[in-house]
Amino acid sequence: MWGNPGHLAEMRRVVEERRGQATPERGPGGEVLHVLVPETNKEDGTYDGIDWGGERVAEEVYAEIKKLEQEGRKVTRFSVTGYSLGGLIARYLVGILHQRGFFTSVTPVNFNTVATPHIGLPRYPTVLSSLFAFFGPKLLSRTGEQFYVVDKWSKNGRPLLEVMADPNRLFYQALTLFEHVRIYANAVNDVTVPYPTAAIELEDIFVNHVQDGIKIEFDEEYAPIIKSYTIPESTTRPPKPRAFTAQWFKELKPNRPLLPPALQFSFPYNVLTLRPFPSSSMS
Questions:
Q1: Whole-number Å distance between alpha carbons of 220 and 128
Q2: Of 17, 23, 155, 271, whose CB neighbour count within 10 A is largest?
Q3: Which residue spans adopt a coiled-coil conformation according to this UniProt entry (predicted)?
Q4: What is the pLDDT of residues 155-173, one digit of tens each?
């Protein structure tokens, strides 16, 4: 939340630099990359909700396509990347485009999200997390309600994130049209969007990765990206510290958050519906 298009300036520069006008970087049909960074969702506008954000971006997409057509160019392939809240807006966006028949003439290619709370903002059994879960829906307006899955978005009272994870609804069906779906999650140190919700997982396998001896292989070109990891069949953990010592309190960190209310009562229906898609992790 609270972002603005300027936050993506460097990302846009790198994408255009690496995948720009050079012939070797063009699409299979000689397509030239054109990058659109939406302008309508920024700062206070991010309080309005995932759905309103998606509607706004859809209008920007159609306006940009119309502009390109007036210049004699035609859009034939489509990819989308969303960061944090932007990833949820992107999921809503592709549902709208699918409903309007956009993908009958435009090929959906890449769908990427980075540090996106796909199953909402989970609550850990800590005082700070409990305070965030209590005040978040109240202070963050419609977006906060949707983040914490306490909204009643559909006519029958289902939260928006639950609806978007339903295989029978167009939001999920739109995702299945893309050739590549990549989900990137911060493996550690992300207190806002922890690994389980960003990666659509029940367990935070990296919370004790050093003690558990998890073997991690990093991507050769982009070192912060985890290429693969291996969990040992058995782990030799040091003896448990004495109760109420400093080390004892340190090891109280849970590896499974409390799921948002809607997901607690309908597991595994809402959590596992996106698991057929591949996921990646970032350290």
A1: 37
A2: 271
A3: none
A4: 999 999 999 999 999 999 9
The segment(s) of the chain belonging to CATH 3.40.50.1820 are 5-205+258-282
**Alpha-carbon gap, residue 279 to 257, rounded angstroms:** 19
On whether the CB atoms of residues 31 and 23 are closer than 8 A, the answer is no
pTM of the complete model:
0.79
How far apart CA 49 and CA 137 sit, in angstroms, is 11
| 29-67 per-residue burial string, b: 16 or more CB within 10 A, e: under 16 | eeeebeeeebeebeeebbbebbbbbbbbbbebbeeebee
Q: What is the model's pLDDT at position 269?
A: 42
pLDDT tens digits, one per residue of 209-235: 777 788 889 998 888 889 888 888 765
Residues in contact with 75: Cβ distance below 8 Å, sequence separation at least 6, in sequence order: 34, 65, 68, 106
